[in-house]
Specification:
This protein is mainly α. It has one domain. The chain is 66% helix and 0% strand. The protein has six helices and no strands. Helix 3 packs across helix 4. The longest helix has 31 residues. The termini are far apart.
Length: 221
């Protein structure tokens, strides 16, 4: 599927439900994978539902172990971070007359969350290998973070270019807007409230251990 800026998007094949296969194709840079995704509001909601369920479970565990109010706030912040990319992309779609392409892009981004989790699972053993070859754990963690960031940014750019039918430059603008805009949306409410970022769990410090009573020395008789 060849997409070029300034030309109408070609007619897409009806998705056959092989979303996992399509996601793998997109993950390796093959535009044909976009044909496996729906381009409707229903498809977007269907891809959003399991992510919301996942956030509910994570937030529920947080509320159980930390605080119910904190767990609710944690859920709302994660939900804003989940919905923000689609909302920000909608602004670009209105600006560049790509509104019919928005649902496809948002659908791919939602499914891409699972791909990012899989990428972390793949990168973790590679980081362990670098440590085995003499790299320090801190350097290995930094290498893992840089590699993941580069791949995640490329995925955002590739999805914007292909799904929204944009030029390379406009796809870069969408990627920057979505990534940094989402970061601001997630973090600003926490700082305006005078609190640390909610995504950092401030667990209460453990209670100090009681000092054992020193044994009384026995006098020699």
């Amino acid at each position: 599927m060849s997409l070029q800026d300034g030309k109408p998007a070609p007619k897409r094949m009806r998705p056959n439900g092989r979303v996992v296969w399509g996601l793998l194709q997109i993950g390796f840079g093959r535009p044909a994978g976009f044909a496996q995704f729906g381009a409707s509001s229903d498809a977007f909601l269907a891809s959003l539902a399991p992510l919301v369920a996942f956030l509910i479970v994570i937030s529920g565990l947080t509320a159980w172990h930390v605080d119910p109010v904190f767990g609710l706030a944690f859920f709302l912040q994660l939900l804003c971070g989940l919905l923000a990319p689609a909302v920000i992309a909608d602004l670009f779609c209105h600006l560049w007359d790509r509104r019919p392409n928005w649902a496809l892009y948002a659908n791919v981004l939602n499914c891409g969350q699972w791909l990012m989790m899989a990428a972390v699972i793949v990168l973790l053993p590679l980081a362990s290998v670098t440590v085995a070859f003499g790299l320090s754990p801190n350097d290995a963690a930094m290498l893992l973070l840089v590699a993941f960031t580069i791949y995640a940014m490329w995925f955002q750019w590739f999805a914007a270019r292909q799904a929204l039918n944009l030029s390379r430059g406009r796809a870069v603008l969408v990627t920057i807007g979505v990534v940094f805009g989402t970061g601001l949306i997630v973090q600003i409410p926490a700082y305006l409230g005078g609190r640390d970022a909610m995504t950092r769990l401030n667990l209460p410090p453990p209670a100090p251990a009681s000092h054992p009573i020193a044994p009384t020395a026995t006098r020699a008789t």
